[in-house]
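WARN no homologs supplied; continuing
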Amino acid sequence: MLLAIILSCAFIFAPLTAFLAGNRGYDVMPWYLAGLALGPVGLLAGLLPRRKHAPEMLFTPELQSLQIG
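OK structure emitted
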């Protein structure tokens, strides 16, 4: 029973941690593994600062006017 609780918590925190890290511009897979291994400690990704070269920043209107094409 304890093993089932531990595994269910791990499989809840892993995708949540990966989602938060992905929204902040970090690579998702290492943070998924951190959430899987560390559980709630992996949720510290929510406290990380946003990266300056996050993928969503590539499509801002200011940068689209600078693209060559």
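The mean pLDDT is 76.
OK
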